[in-house]
Each structure stands twice: as structure tokens, then as C-alpha cells.
Amino acid sequence: MTLLLETPVPAAVDDLTLRRSAARVLFTNWTGGSTVPSRGLYPHQWSWDSAFIAIGLRHLSVRRAQRELETLVGAQWADGRIPHIVFNPAVPLDAYFPSPDFWRSSRDGAAVGAPAGIETSGIVQPPVHALAAWLVHQADPEASHRRGFLPRMYGHLAAWHDYLTGPRNLGGRGLAAMVHPWEPGMDNSPCWDGPLQRVEPAAAGSYRRADLDHGQPAERPTDLDYGRYVRLATDYRDSGYADKGSRHAFAVEDPCVNALLIVSEHALARIAAETGADPAPHEHRATRLTEALVERLWSPDDGMFLCRDLVGGGLLAERSVAGLLPLIVPGLPQDLVDALIRTATGPGFRLGAIPMVPSYDITRPAFDPSRYWRGPAWFNTNWLLERGLRQYGQVRAADRLRTSILAAAGACDFAEYVDPFTAQARGTRDFGWTAALTLDLLAAAPSAGNTSRTTDPSSGERT
């Protein structure tokens, strides 16, 4: 199946200017040990943000990319979970909510192994980390070997995957389950509307939303949704962050999360082989997870993967970009690949017909081109889709999507997300993973042979 695409894109910025601008964002957002997604809206370290940021940072400074991941796993819990936020104690409590005094990880998570000296959240985000570690290693294997980067990361990453396939195997069929809408990373996706109906929201006066200090209300989750997020987080905290044996009002198996787990399990096999460990258990787990992904989440009628509701039972009918992203998984049956490409290019997602693939089916009533994960296009999901298309031989489609992503990034000041029809900026600007993934796509472009160097203006470090 070959795609011939005519994609309208914003006016392009030349590669060198784009590269320098993206580097400036990452230098500005660097805190000394990690990179904040944005200085205002997200002033701490986020889990899957740091993984994507490390993938881009490797093109500027391999050492910084390594430190990005090392800082994150330094906050790992003893049960293996990598928390979705690592809090910077220098940031005022009122700068972000839920703040560390809400999560109380070192106290309320002590029974399941939260670190005593670092405050974190208690939930997780998608497992991009082993893939990121392997790509960072590949950027400069000699530097990686000198610092013992992979041997130090391997145990952390193996424990992380054991956590997701152990305590988080709530459905009993091998896939990782998410117990809060923030965990799959697509926070207010319409996929969660049905499951969230079961959740009584926290009282409006019991918390203050700091996100509205930095974002437009029309582009952020509603107060009703936010109240439900707070209730779920409160209940999980009050359970001591326990997984199995707890009653979860929200528990889903998400195709993007599990696709990333499979890809990272393959990466972990390569890391194991590089460090002298046995890669076979990781390859076997990746195979079992792929089989479970197809068995549990594939919808032939929809031509894509859907989320499974473990509380209410059955697949959720909502169609989000998460259901296309298993294209990143190697070895899918060809008929599924063909169906995914038809769905991606069809009326719901319009790959190749609009600048970037939306986060939700544009033909559905819940679609909103401006509100967070309810329709806008995101750079990380389009980056993943580009990789998936290229993996399955859709080179022209991947090339055109890459061109469109780069044009949008340059035109929108590295926005958090964009309107999928116009590529107009939405959310915060100078967003970390937008800049980082721009650098990664530039490095893969024909012009990537450019060897000009960039200097961090804040430190003088040559990168």
C-alpha cells in the first residue's frame, strides 16, 4: 500500500535557523540536571517529556542527554515505578498543582518504596525511557562506554518494565494498566469521558488550578475534568499508592502506552546485549506483549486499536491517535498495518491532507481543535507516527509528515500543541519536547550533514 500525499504545510524555516532556535529552547529550559518542559506552565521534571527531550538533546550534548535520564531514574521508587513528576525543591509550592505537599510521596508512598529524600508524584507516564537510553547510547557509543551509561541504566529500566508488567498488570493478560488519566499522557482525551463519569469530582474549593495562570481556559481541561483528576489522585495517594488489591475507579489498558512498552522492551534487549546480560527475556516479553496488544485492543471494525476499560469492561469506542501509534511496534501482521494506514489517511485523522495528525478523530462530536488532547496535534505523537510509517516502508508518507512537522515547529515557536488544520500555536510556547523532536527530525533529514556547532549562552558549554 503506497501513499501519495499532498500536504498543506506552513511556510518553512531554513534548517540552520530552526536548529539554532530549537537548541535555544533546550538550553533555556535546562536546570543543571534535567530539562523542564516549559519555564512557566511545567516548572519541574516530567517523565516522558524527559525521555523525548533526551532523544533530541543527544544531537547537542550526549552528556546532557545521559544526565537527563540519570536524574529521572534517580527518583525511581523501590517497586520499580518511575514517577511522572520529579519535583524541584527550589520551585515555590504554588507554582504548580498538584504540588509535592499534595502527593506527599516520601510519607504516603513509603510502604511501596518512594524515595525518602526526593519528592515526586505517585503516578507514572508512558515508558519511552529504554528507547531513549538506547538512542542516546547510539549517538556516541564511546562516550557511553566511558561513563558506563548503559550498565547504570539497565537495572533501573528492567525494574521499571517489571513494575509495569507486574503490579500494573491489572487485567491479568500481560498489558500495563493506567490508573489515572494523566498516566497515558493524553490527559483529557475523550477516551476517558466514559470512565470518568464514575468519578465524583473533588470539591472546587479544595484546590487551586495553577495551570490557568499560564494557559487559556479554552485550551485546558475543564474544571469538571480537573476535579475528577484530583479525586482520583487523592484516592490513589490515600491508598498508599497501592496497585493490585486496591479498588480503582479508573483503570484502562492504553494502546500507546503498551506499544511504547513493547518498543522499549526491544530496546532493553539491545541494552542487555551491550552490557553482557541476556537479551532473550526481553525479546520474549516483547513478543508476548505484542500478542496481547493485538488480542486485547485491536478493533477490526474501527481499523485501529482502542483502549480497554478494566472497570466497566470492554473496549472504549472513542478513537484517538493512541490507536494509530502501535505502528511503531515491529512485526505487526500486515493486514493490521494496512488497516492502520487506511485509518490514518481516512476522514478521521487525514494524514497527508492536513498539516499534522490530530489527537482525536475529527469526525466525532467530542473533537475540539484547541482543547489539550481533545483534538489538537502534538509533536511527540506525530514523531512516533513518522517512525511507524518509515518502519513499515511508507517512506514518502513519512518524509512528507516530517517536512510538515518541521514547518509547523518553526512557525509556532515550538508550541506545546497546534491546531491540526492550520498548525497555529496552542498551549505554552518554547516547549521542551517540541524543540527536542525537531532536532531529531532535522538530524535525520538530508541536510543533517551540517556540522556547525552551537554554544549554550548560559554556560559557554560547546555542544
UniProtKB/TrEMBL annotation:
<dbReference type="InterPro" id="IPR054491">
    <property type="entry name" value="MGH1-like_GH"/>
</dbReference>
<protein>
    <submittedName>
        <fullName>Trehalase family glycosidase</fullName>
    </submittedName>
</protein>
<comment type="similarity">
    <text>Belongs to the glycosyl hydrolase 63 family.</text>
</comment>
<keyword id="KW-0378">Hydrolase</keyword>
<dbReference type="InterPro" id="IPR008928">
    <property type="entry name" value="6-hairpin_glycosidase_sf"/>
</dbReference>
<dbReference type="GO" id="GO:0016798">
    <property type="term" value="F:hydrolase activity, acting on glycosyl bonds"/>
</dbReference>
<dbReference type="InterPro" id="IPR004888">
    <property type="entry name" value="Glycoside_hydrolase_63"/>
</dbReference>
<keyword id="KW-0326">Glycosidase</keyword>
<dbReference type="InterPro" id="IPR012341">
    <property type="entry name" value="6hp_glycosidase-like_sf"/>
</dbReference>
<dbReference type="Pfam" id="PF22422">
    <property type="entry name" value="MGH1-like_GH"/>
</dbReference>
<feature type="domain" description="Mannosylglycerate hydrolase MGH1-like glycoside hydrolase">
    <location>
        <begin position="42"/>
        <end position="434"/>
    </location>
</feature>
